[in-house]
Write a structure and sequence with these properties.
The protein is α+β, with helices and mostly antiparallel strands. It contains 16 helices and 7 strands.
Length: 512
């Protein structure tokens, strides 16, 4: 039968984070490709609308400057043509510019979902063509004027209008072409009236400048599209973050509900399990000790012993699960008092001495006798030391040595170190050993009895004290567990009594 891995369990619960991200990216790509196929410009529909919207904003904002430019050109043209003709040309330009501005305002006020992008784009192209043609009519107005400065003036105006047109219509490239075509044709028509080399060179430069403005508008269009894509990606990321936050809040709510249900279940089951378990332990102990007389068969005593030991193991497991549950839920309350760390460690060593002696193991103690008292929960500290010593005895081979160290840390705190001469733990198995119900390959191969909760409980209790936990191990080099307590929990010893019998006030707890 194949082994069920954590990846398979996770896959059964739903897609992983990487799979979900890949699916979202694939969905965006498919949606983008579909919109490009249905778009006449090869871009997404949202981009088509945004480009037209930017064009409308440009045209609407440039209306007043264009009015001033038309008035200025018309006023300057009266030096060569009659005022009525100049005013008529100016009125025509303003009429077309006003119509384009009005269409742009109407476009911006419409609902984006109700707009026909194809029709709007055609209106933009026709509007640019008509508007540029109205400006280019300036050539016909001054065509009969035989003055070099008049032709220079017209050429200068056409270059300015070409620059303005290509910049304003840059977001709609076809409209930029349509707007530049009449202006370029009008500029080239000046060659019919110019025979001097200098005039021909100026006209050629003017046409080249107009083409340069067209190339510049292409770059502006590319930059605008890139900015829209960047904004779309940013909006997509923000949307994903909001969705992830909503999912996280929902997951947190469910986790809190599950944690509350787990706590209620454990509180109920602990009572329901301990009641019959105490009866099993009591009766099995009576049978094991043959209180009411010897057994008829010797095997009955072995069975009662096995029942009693199994019951004790089950009771220990229940207590560990409850302790870990309270620690994870933040409901483990510390009953702090002043204690001697070296004394607690010595008591724990004495309690575990019988188990170590059964495996012919020896203890080597290196304890600093000058350690002052520690402000901590004695029951929790005792459980920490017992769990560490129990693991060391369990995995140290017969005849091995266990080293216990108690002393000062470099920051002024106190530490407990337990090092064994066992086979060690591979580096890749340390996270497994530190997880709840996690057991290393050595424990599984040797069928060592245990729930896999000892080290997680130790780390949780040490964290509640604000201390540190460190596991050092290498294969065939043994394992060392170091537990540290912060300097803030170390209490200075009371000062000696002075000669007059008066003692100074006690010193406060040493700061961290």
């Amino acid at each position: 039968m194949s082994e069920i891995t954590a990846q398979m369990v996770q896959r059964g619960r739903g897609p992983t984070a990487e799979e979900a991200a890949r699916r979202r990216k694939l969905a965006r790509d498919v949606r983008s490709a579909r919109e490009r196929l249905t778009s006449s410009t090869g871009l997404e529909r949202a981009f088509d609308y945004e480009l037209l919207r930017v064009y409308a904003q440009y045209r609407l904002g440039a209306f007043l400057p264009l009015v001033l430019l038309a008035f200025s050109i018309a006023a300057a043209a009266v030096f060569w043509v009659p005022v009525a003709l100049s005013a008529a040309w100016c009125a025509g330009v303003l009429l077309v510019a006003g119509t384009v501005a009005a269409l742009s305002r109407a476009f911006l006020r419409q609902d984006p979902e109700a707009i026909s992008l194809r029709t709007s784009r055609r209106r933009v192209i026709v509007g640019e063509l008509v508007q540029s043609t109205s400006w280019a009519l300036l050539v016909l107005m001054l065509f009969r004027i035989d003055a070099a400065n008049a032709r220079t003036f017209v050429m200068f105006v056409l270059v300015i209008v070409a620059a303005v047109t290509t910049m304003l219509a840059a977001t709609v490239p076809v409209a930029a072409y349509a707007g530049l075509l009449p202006l370029t044709a009008a500029t080239a028509s000046l060659l019919w009236l110019s025979r001097e080399a200098e005039s021909v060179l100026l006209i050629a430069m003017a046409v080249g400048a107009q083409l340069f403005f067209l190339a510049l508008s292409k770059h502006l269009h590319t930059s605008t599209v890139a900015a829209l894509q960047s904004r779309a990606e940013k909006d997509a990321i923000f949307g994903e973050l909001e969705q992830a936050k909503a999912n996280s809040d929902e997951a947190r709510r469910r986790a809190e509900e599950a944690n509350l249900a787990k706590s209620r279940f454990l509180a109920t089951m602990s009572h329901e399990l301990r009641t019959p378990l105490n009866a099993i332990l009591g009766f099995s102990e009576v049978m094991k000790n043959e209180v009411f007389g010897p057994h008829a068969a010797p095997s009955y005593q072995e069975y009662s012993t096995d029942i009693h030991e199994s019951g004790l193991h089950l009771l220990t497991l229940i207590n560990e699960i409850l302790d870990l549950s309270r620690i994870e839920a933040g409901r483990y309350e510390l009953n702090e008092e002043a204690l001697l760390l070296a004394y607690v460690v010595e008591e724990c060593r004495h309690m575990m001495a019988l188990r170590a002696r059964a495996k012919n193991q020896s203890f080597r103690e290196l304890v600093d006798p000058s350690l002052p008292r520690l402000f901590a929960d004695e029951r929790a500290v005792r459980q920490v030391v017992l769990n560490i010593l129990s693991n060391a005895i369990k995995f140290t081979p017969p005849g091995g040595e266990i080293t216990i160290k108690v002393g000062w840390t470099s920051s002024g705190g106190q530490y407990v170190s337990v090092r064994d001469t066992g086979p060690g733990i591979p580096e890749d198995e340390i996270p497994t050993v530190m997880s709840s119900f996690g057991r290393g390959s050595l424990a599984i191969k040797t069928a060592e009895q245990g729930s896999g909760l000892g080290l997680p409980i130790v780390k949780g209790l040490v964290d509640l004290h604000g201390g540190g936990f460190q596991l050092k191990s290498r294969p065939r080099e043994g394992t060392e567990v170091v537990v540290t307590f912060p300097a803030a929990r170390v209490m200075d010893a009371l000062p000696a009594v002075t000669g007059d019998g008066a003692a100074p006030p006690p010193r406060p707890v040493r700061a961290a």
